[in-house]
Amino acid sequence: MNNIIDFKPKVDLEVVKQLDTLIKWAQDTLLKGVPDRVHEGIQWEMNSWHQSGIDSAAFTALGSSRNATHETRRYLQQPFMDFAKAVVVYQGVFLGKKSVQMHLTVLKILEVALVEVTEARDVTQLSAAACDRALELIANHQSRAENAYQLSKILEQVIKLMKEKKLLAKPFRWRSPLRRPASGTLKQQKKDHKKKLPSRESLKALGELFNNDLTSTQDIVTTSACALLLSQPARVGELADVEQDCVVFKEGRSGGQRMFLRWYAEKGYGATTKPVMTGMEPVVECAIERIRSITEEAREYAAWLEDNPEEFPPHEGVAKKGLDDPLTYLEACAALKISVSEGHARARFKGRFIGLFTRFSTLSPPAQQILDEIKVGWDTSKGKIIRVPGVIGVQRVEFDDKAVITLRKLNILVREKYLPKDFPYTTPFEEGKKRVKYRNALFTVRTGALVGEHAAVRARDLCLEIAVSPWRMSGQLGGDKKTKSIFERHGYRGVKVNTHAFRHELNTEMHRAGLSQLLIDAFSGRTSMGSVYNHETVEERTQAVAAVHPKTKHRNTSNRLEKIKTNAPLTLKDVTDLAEDAQDRVVHQTYLGICVHDFASEPCSKMGACLGCGELACVKGDDEKLKNLKEERDYIQKRHRKAVDAESRGDFGATEWVKKVSKDLIKCNELIKLLEDPELENGAIVWNADNGWNLTNNAAAMAGLIESQVIEAEDQMTLPSLDEVSAMMDEIEA
What we know:
44% of the residues lie in helices and 6% in strands. Helix 4 runs antiparallel to helix 5 (145-164) and helix 12 crosses helix 13 (407-418). The protein has 734 residues and is an alpha+beta fold. The protein has helices spanning 10-32, 80-94, 101-118, 128-141, 145-164, 186-196, 200-211, 217-229, 281-307, 329-335, 345-352, 365-376, 407-418, 455-458, 470-478, 486-489, 501-512, 517-524, 538-548, 557-565, 572-576, 623-649, 654-675, 695-702, 722-733; strands at 247-251, 257-265, 270-275, 384-387, 395-398, 444-446, 464-466, 588-589, 594-595, 616-619, 685-687. Strands 8-9-10-11 form a 4-stranded antiparallel beta sheet, with helices on one face. A 3-stranded antiparallel beta sheet has the order 1-2-3, with no helix packed on it. The chain has a two-stranded antiparallel ribbon with strand order 4-5. It is extended, with a radius of gyration of 35 Å. It is built from 25 helices and 11 strands. The protein folds into 5 domains: 10-164, no CATH class; 183-196 and 498-536, no CATH class; 199-310 and 439-495, no CATH class; 329-405, no CATH class; 557-733, no CATH class.
């Protein structure tokens, strides 16, 4: 009876068959490979594809430490592992996404949630409950609300993919309840202005360093790269695609020649030519010339490597032998630029070169074959002692190694170990992208050229890299535990800057100059609105509105608050900052704040329901009104409890009453929160949000003339701009 299996519904069998089909397609797609997206030798069974062309594709389990040893590292378990790999192939290979890290993070969390809810790893049994649990885990593992929101959207994409591919035994609809974190508050604007823009000290220091007689190659490259980033808004990662002949001159509107840079913008914008900021042309010319002189030799080396794939990289230490002639270990070490004394070459060759290949999770078949040949033929004994005739006490040790070391074999291993995985190109494959080769890239250098010529990096100059990678620039401009920043090295203590701050700075300056958002986005190489890059201060925006709006002037908040506290007559001009004499009518003060309704035109349409009226304004610092507002909240809380009790008893109309009282309670809480906010200046006005209800709409709804539902305003209270205030007043006057 042991051969009896459990009965499975037909629908379960169908989704399992669909899942098997998807996994089989993914295996075939991975092994066939898409040109330039995966490397030769990649295998489905590998626990990591990071070294095989798919960035960040390591299938470790949630919570497994990166620093864990190979034996203690935990991985995703079957059958979930195959599903996760299929999703990665779909995203990274089929769709060509640059990074699948966020998808893998979500999949790792989803595995844990699935096991907790279903006690199994069968992804076809995924449900809304498992998604809810996954969302809880996302929130627990992410300290930043923005990151949690982004991962929740990735989870939605995974569910959508499963529905499209018919992988769910019981299809369901699931949407993340997380909302994108608000970033438009006054407090957040001030924080962004300070955090995301470069300090004046950092810009001044970079200018001084650029004009100094720098001798360090690293310092010259760093200051020159910063000069390019300050000449037109760009991302630091885009510097890898800048060619040495990137300068283009075009005729300007005034007839003169304008400098442009050939550029490739990331995130979908593509190839373009960007105009250099006026006044920065001489700086850009100087920066490019400095970098060219530093990187010329490395570009020539890159060209030789590309044109001579079968040849060993030439240098003075290479033995004058043919590609297939046997090498001694001393000659092999010399070719590899490994410093060694006679008698220790064999051990150094094994430890300093062959031993490093154990860190590689994937190798090309030719490289793996050579390594296997060396390991199999390696004499593991202590060797045979040979005494030197005629010399007392002198002896040597011989080993019976079977493998023959040649320059041809070393060439394969050197290129496997030292050359970037995308060589001869500087960046991974991207659909429709004009790729740049190391032989043409402006910032091509030999590895180790920027950190000195000491023995630890001497061998690495057989390799190529981009001198201004994001991690290196971050270290140079901000410093870290291992690296002193350029500011620290030159005596600018406490000064640091983020690599992306230059882009924020130029975007903000363009806003100040009055450029349209569409033009700024085009200049910055964006396909979407980039208003998040605008960090003009609140004061600057207020002044800009005041300069173009004839009715607007600066607020005198202290004068307004003084009138309220002394119970002096308050005019509409005091409340709205409108300068026309016609607006000097006296406004009413209520128990909650100020009412700007014009009772000479019509009676109150709200019948005293101030909490739902958009003509109510509360003034920060008016302690008496704040006290009244808190008493109103206490009263509403009592009504809310009674309404909830009535609803639990099933009383007619109680549910609608709970909704209404709940909104009033939320409104009170938000108003109190804003009026107690220390970031808000005393005398500032907090405008109430209108809920759309009035006596006229109510009567029409009762008569059946309009829908009974009314348009409700947002629950979250916000401060309106001066434009919104003026528009509201124009509407009142009409």
